[in-house]
Write a structure and sequence with these properties.
3-stranded antiparallel sheet; 19 strands
């Protein structure tokens, strides 16, 4: 009787042990499968993210994709204090080398790009790989123009074209023909108006492209918020970067409003520099300096002036 009890207990213990070993063996065999499934899920997620990024150039920088306005951002994007922009894989937008108007104050307003002498029908090419955001016509401004957003974070604007040869949302490669030179819109002669912007912020194209030499200035451009239009600003940025004080310069820069967006004001009847100064909390002297005007300058209704 005692022997039977012992045998029963032994069989039960062996069964429990065998079940435990089998379960552990099953778990051990299942672990690599789980890892493989997780790997497959991760790869699928990576592919999905890459596909979405390819569909929306500079996906990590821009929050929207709209085709209604050139300057569509305002305070909707977060502008970093500094950012390194890759300029490799470029193509000069035109083979012409003569600059007829530079970036900066002009005729009591800001000229936010370069004017390069081209003739009606001359080939205009995409500067970098990207996706066409806008193909529009503006009678009192750009005329027939194209806006492209690029993988490196830049957006380029090509204005006063005689013909647009791409469509909105079309993908282009650097060097693809996007239009023909012209004299449409607010233009006094055939030329290409060429703008380079980062998150809506103007960058002087001469800091990126050397049109006389038909080359880029360097392989990458160091963007610093609010310091991208004048040569004196660029000299300051490069000196600060060399001295390791770039963050200090960026934090002290007061050329932009809170949040980094440059603000503009359209002159209305009754506006004066004093009124604008109080409205935007900026001194009259600074308003004059930013817009290349004097305290005695007559403000024209409809004129656009920079306020921060």
């Amino acid at each position: 009787m005692i022997f039977k009890c012992i045998r029963t207990l032994a069989v039960a213990a062996l069964a429990v042990f065998s079940l435990n070993v089998a379960a552990q063996d099953l778990i051990a065999r299942q672990a690599p499968i789980d890892r493989k499934l997780k790997s497959v899920d991760s790869l699928a997620l990576v592919r999905l993210i890459k596909a979405e990024q390819a569909f929306y150039p500079a996906y990590s920088l821009y929050t929207t994709w709209k085709n209604d306005r050139v300057h569509a951002y305002g305070n909707t994007v977060s502008i970093p204090d500094s950012f390194r922009i890759d300029l490799t894989g470029f193509c000069m937008p035109t083979t012409h080398t003569k600059i007829t108007s530079k970036c900066g104050p002009r005729w009591r307003r800001m000229h936010n790009g370069l004017d390069i002498k081209v003739y009606i029908g001359d080939t205009i090419r995409a500067a970098f790989d990207g996706r066409v955001r806008m193909v529009k016509y503006e009678r009192r401004g750009y005329g027939k123009y194209v806006v492209i957003r690029h993988d490196n974070g830049l957006e380029t604007v090509y204005g006063h074209l005689s013909k647009q040869l791409v469509k909105e949302d079309e993908f282009v490669k650097a060097g693809d023909v996007i239009g023909l030179g012209g004299n449409t819109g607010r233009s006094t002669g055939s030329h290409l108006h060429f703008e380079t912007r980062f998150l809506g912020q103007v960058i002087n194209p001469e800091f990126l492209f050397d049109f006389p030499q038909q080359d880029i200035v360097c392989d990458s451009y160091l963007f610093v918020r609010g310091l991208n239009m004048y040569k004196s600003q660029r000299t300051r940025v490069l000196a600060a970067a060399k001295a390791g004080k770039l963050k200090e310069v960026a934090s002290k820069n007061t050329g932009t409003s809170e949040g980094g967006a440059i603000r503009y004001h359209k002159i209305r009847t009754g506006d004066t520099l004093g009124l604008i100064s109080r409205k935007y909390h900026v001194s009259i002297d600074r308003l004059c300096k930013m817009n290349g005007i004097r305290r005695t300058t007559t403000l024209r209704v409809g004129q656009i002036i920079r306020c921060s």
